[in-house]
Amino acid sequence: MAKIIRQDQINPHTYVLWLEEKSVPKPGQFYMVYPKDGAKLLGRPISVFDYHEGQLGLLYEVVGGGTEEFSKLEAGEDLRILGPYGRGFTPYPDKKVACIAGGVGLAPFIYLSRFLKGTTRVYFGTRDAQGFGDYLKDYPLDLKIQEGGYITEAVDFQAYDQFYTCGPRVMMNAVLDRCRQEDKDLELSLEERMGCGFGACLACSCQGKEGRKKVCLDGPVFAKEELDHA
Ligand SMILES: Cc1cc2nc3c(=O)[nH]c(=O)nc-3n(C[C@H](O)[C@H](O)[C@H](O)COP(=O)(O)OP(=O)(O)OC[C@H]3O[C@@H](n4cnc5c(N)ncnc54)[C@H](O)[C@@H]3O)c2cc1C
Ligand code: FES
């Protein structure tokens, strides 16, 4: 059980839940967060948005019953979480890096930025940018926010050596294609639907270049060489 420290609301459908947590996660790892409602048995995988001095931040969008329940949680309540799980990003502090995020795919790049040198360039495409600029203003991010359209069109792929991406599959495949064309290094974080979160159920299986992969154990982060497509 983790004690809830506070809950911040970024905009009408996006929240950051802050919890007490002793384990120090790696950037790109995730937690399984369990609704209290017994009818929703499975945990919901949520990426590490930030971790600092025993405080774990999870940024999430309300899309269904589980995340709706999380949005009602209050400081002082206990919440069942398991993790940190999965293989995270490899931080390359000496490379010129850019992160390309769609929607809540933004979440893992905030914590990743703590492991990179200087200010991290983040291209963030979203349907609703409301509140993000203000909420993230104290992080060392050079944040380009775009509402609607294709965020990949805003990126100068030749200007960076290393890319990281997370978000809708169609966006990640566009990033993958460009990184292949320009011969750039890329790590992708897949957001497959999950059951257990720790390798026991096969719900998150995806096709890798060398056979089936479990996104929860082998990922969620994969290098571009490991995948044909996101
Ligand atoms: C490794 C990983 C990290 C994630 N990190 C975050 C995060 O940091 N913040 C965040 O808001 N969400 C994240 N997600 C997605 C999140 O787990 C789902 O949005 C959540 O489980 C939905 O639960 P629910 O009960 O509210 O919705 P449900 O009632 O279960 O589903 C509502 C809708 O959301 C869709 N949905 C459910 N799970 C996913 C998924 N994995 N990918 C895409 N669509 C989904 C369903 O198809 C349905 O349309 C992550 C998923 C994975 C696999
Ligand atoms: S979610 Fe169960 S094996 Fe990955």
Automatic annotation (TrEMBL):
<feature type="domain" description="FAD-binding FR-type">
    <location>
        <begin position="1"/>
        <end position="91"/>
    </location>
</feature>
<keyword id="KW-0411">Iron-sulfur</keyword>
<feature type="binding site">
    <location>
        <begin position="44"/>
        <end position="47"/>
    </location>
    <ligand>
        <name>FAD</name>
    </ligand>
</feature>
<keyword id="KW-0274">FAD</keyword>
<dbReference type="InterPro" id="IPR017938">
    <property type="entry name" value="Riboflavin_synthase-like_b-brl"/>
</dbReference>
<dbReference type="InterPro" id="IPR019480">
    <property type="entry name" value="Dihydroorotate_DH_Fe-S-bd"/>
</dbReference>
<dbReference type="InterPro" id="IPR050353">
    <property type="entry name" value="PyrK_electron_transfer"/>
</dbReference>
<dbReference type="InterPro" id="IPR012165">
    <property type="entry name" value="Cyt_c3_hydrogenase_gsu"/>
</dbReference>
<feature type="binding site">
    <location>
        <position position="201"/>
    </location>
    <ligand>
        <name>[2Fe-2S] cluster</name>
    </ligand>
</feature>
<dbReference type="GO" id="GO:0051537">
    <property type="term" value="F:2 iron, 2 sulfur cluster binding"/>
</dbReference>
<keyword id="KW-0249">Electron transport</keyword>
<dbReference type="GO" id="GO:0050660">
    <property type="term" value="F:flavin adenine dinucleotide binding"/>
</dbReference>
<feature type="binding site">
    <location>
        <position position="196"/>
    </location>
    <ligand>
        <name>[2Fe-2S] cluster</name>
    </ligand>
</feature>
<dbReference type="GO" id="GO:0046872">
    <property type="term" value="F:metal ion binding"/>
</dbReference>
<dbReference type="GO" id="GO:0006221">
    <property type="term" value="P:pyrimidine nucleotide biosynthetic process"/>
</dbReference>
<keyword id="KW-0408">Iron</keyword>
<keyword id="KW-0479">Metal-binding</keyword>
<feature type="binding site">
    <location>
        <begin position="66"/>
        <end position="67"/>
    </location>
    <ligand>
        <name>FAD</name>
    </ligand>
</feature>
<feature type="binding site">
    <location>
        <position position="216"/>
    </location>
    <ligand>
        <name>[2Fe-2S] cluster</name>
    </ligand>
</feature>
<protein>
    <submittedName>
        <fullName>Dihydrdoorotate oxidase B, electron transfer subunit</fullName>
    </submittedName>
</protein>
<dbReference type="Pfam" id="PF10418">
    <property type="entry name" value="DHODB_Fe-S_bind"/>
</dbReference>
<keyword id="KW-0285">Flavoprotein</keyword>
<feature type="binding site">
    <location>
        <position position="204"/>
    </location>
    <ligand>
        <name>[2Fe-2S] cluster</name>
    </ligand>
</feature>
<dbReference type="InterPro" id="IPR037117">
    <property type="entry name" value="Dihydroorotate_DH_ele_sf"/>
</dbReference>
<dbReference type="GO" id="GO:0016491">
    <property type="term" value="F:oxidoreductase activity"/>
</dbReference>
<comment type="similarity">
    <text>Belongs to the PyrK family.</text>
</comment>
<dbReference type="InterPro" id="IPR039261">
    <property type="entry name" value="FNR_nucleotide-bd"/>
</dbReference>
<keyword id="KW-0813">Transport</keyword>
<dbReference type="InterPro" id="IPR017927">
    <property type="entry name" value="FAD-bd_FR_type"/>
</dbReference>
<keyword id="KW-0001">2Fe-2S</keyword>
